[in-house]
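ugh ok fine here u go
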Amino acid sequence: MESLVKQGHCAYCKTEIREILSQGPHPKTHAKYCPNCGAQLWGVHKCGAQIRYEDRFCPKCGEPNSIYLGNDPDYFADRVEEE
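structure:
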């Protein structure tokens, strides 16, 4: 079983966002949002590292991610059975 986030869907509204998840934050706004529900998917941490909403900690400095989804798998994304 794989989470919807791993399949390229928004954990909030379940919309297909694989392309947005692969783009990174916008160079001027330093953020990227789901086009359907407006949830923030990408951001730039204060140390300058790019972080996604499923990153618990900043990969560069190790501080907590302010846009992290949470640790609850039911909140993080619905589980989907593989076909």
